[in-house]
Amino acid sequence: MTRDPIVTQALQILECQVREADALASPDAVRDYLRLQMADRPHEVFAVVFLDVQNRVISIEEMFRGTLTQTSVYPREVVKEALASNAAAVILCHNHPSGVSTPSRADELLTQALKAALALVDVRVLDHFIVTRSMTLSFAERGIL
Question: Where are the domains of the chain?
Answer without folding.
Answer: 5-142
